[in-house]
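Homework help board

Subject: predicted structure for assignment chain

Our instructor gave us this sequence and asked us to write out the predicted structure in token form, then describe one feature. I got the tokens but I'm not sure how to describe them. Can anyone check?
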Amino acid sequence: MAEAIRDDSSPKAKLTRSNLKKAFRLFSYLKPDIGKYLAGLVFLALTSATALAFPMLIGNLVNSTKEGTVDSINQQALILLGILAAQSFFSFMRIYLFAQTTEKALYRLRADLYGHLIRLPMAWFSKTRVGEINSRISADITQIQDTFNTALAEFLRQISLVIGGLILISIISIQLTLFMLALIPAITIVAIVFGRYIRKISREAQDKVAESNTIVQETMLGIVNVKSFANETIEALRYGTSVKEIARLSLRSAFSRGLFASFIILALFGAIVGIVWYATLLMKSNEIAFGEIISFVLYTSFIGASIGGLAEIYAQIQKAVGATERLFEILDEQPEEIELSASSRPSSRLRGQVKFENVRFAYPGRADITVLKNLSFEAQPGERIAIVGPSGAGKSTITQLLLRFYEPDSGKIHIDGKDARDYALTELRNHMAIVPQDVLLFGGSIRENILYGKPDATEAEIVAAAEKANARTFIEQFPEGYETIVGERGITLSGGQRQRIAIARAVLKNPSILILDEATSSLDSESERLVQEALDKLMVGRTSFIVAHRLATIRNADRILVLEGGEIRESGTHEELMRIQGGIYAGLSRLQFQNEEFDTSALKSL
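My token output:
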């Protein structure tokens, strides 16, 4: 990402009053170190001043050889060395001070951005891609870092060199200055046209490289399909076509860069020859001294180099302004009222009584589709409520509303007789725990993942939680035990092991309200048995909401809610629902039973 942002395909923002105003908000992060930043600007000015003095002193040194003594020549040379030493010191201080203030400012920005990001509501995350979030946190901040560290200072330095250089060459010779300025527009126009053409080809080549990388990635991820369908030749041809196009575009780019380099050499040295020719004529008529010609040529080189670099620096500043806009779009989003404290544990325990009263809800991104329609039900403390129904019926939506990931469009959710919105969000969620179908473990150790439920838990509490979750045996079989690294998303553990780690951290949290969202649906029979045993122990004494497709796992629920089309069609125990003639639950149960019976007989026949 950091590399991508430096290329010309990175988005640029046109500099307007609106986005510049937004960009200047970045300077609020510099406030604690504003003195150092201003000192950096002073050293920047001194660097430019010493750079502008250098050509003039070179000219004086050359002129001193005509009439001056050896001592005066040595004196001029010593002054030059002193100026160079001063410029070196000023440059070091400028770079060091800008880097110091920039890194501290970016530390504050990163911390502020991430702290704000994790407090944003689920509605925002549901409409924002993870890749986009990663790009903003990494690539956009890197772009701002590069701009503050070098580009902004360099832009100011180049501007001062251009303006100062033009003033000084005008003092040396106004005629030679006007002659030089007459050459610049033609060279600049051709350079801009060439540059845009080369950038366009480079972008096309980069897109093709990305496309070829995608082919490789897809092929490697789907290598089983490729080999099972014997499509190695097709994939090789597909990749070959892509890299052939890369080669074609790269050759076009190389040809254009060669032409551009030739033009620059011709234009640059042609301009120098023209300036020296005209300067020689002026010197012939005693209108300019030889030392002044040397100074003029050096100043001209400074000005040319500065003008040449300004376009690239300006483009980088445009990218930084665009990056700033995108970052402040996040910071301007309304966050949830979350208490960012690791010690914000609930002071008292909820009983766990939950009541949905005429709840109506549609997801923000699909406002035209009502997921829940005037839903009402009540769960008593310690009751096990199973929620079943076809896909899209609204089962998981109930759990998301319970956690207040979203707010109902109408109706109310009461917890212990109190409107859920009257609880502080952190306090409410600290009374709840969820064991999802797809368990996400963090890439650290087993201990760290269990501790996620209660960061200040003791060793005895961790072991007891693992024991209760049927996880202690397999954990202690690992050579590193609880220090075993689980890998990204828990990849080194099986599905059943990941589920039991998730149960252990839920045990450690000791919630009043427990949510089980398809917690055993993707496990083999043995893993399902162990996980179900752990879940049964976990549900004791807690109000539990069990979202399930496999009806065999919810037969012992105190009440089963059957959802269809966002409404509760049936409610009761397993036995009560099975007695309903033509009932939805009874139909689903018989269908699943027949499928399981068929699978068993098929296995026996093998």
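Reply (TA_rk): Your tokens look well-formed. For the description, you could write something like this. Residues 1-9, 597-606 have pLDDT under 50 and may be disordered. That's the kind of observation they're looking for.
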